[in-house]
Amino acid sequence: MRMVAMLAGNGWLHPRGSIAYTVKYRLEISRRLTGPLAGEVVGRGTVDAESYALADARRAGRATLTIANGDSFAVDVSGDASRSADITVVGRISGF
Question: What is the Cα–Cα distance from 40 to 64, expressed in whole angstroms?
Answer without folding.
Answer: 21
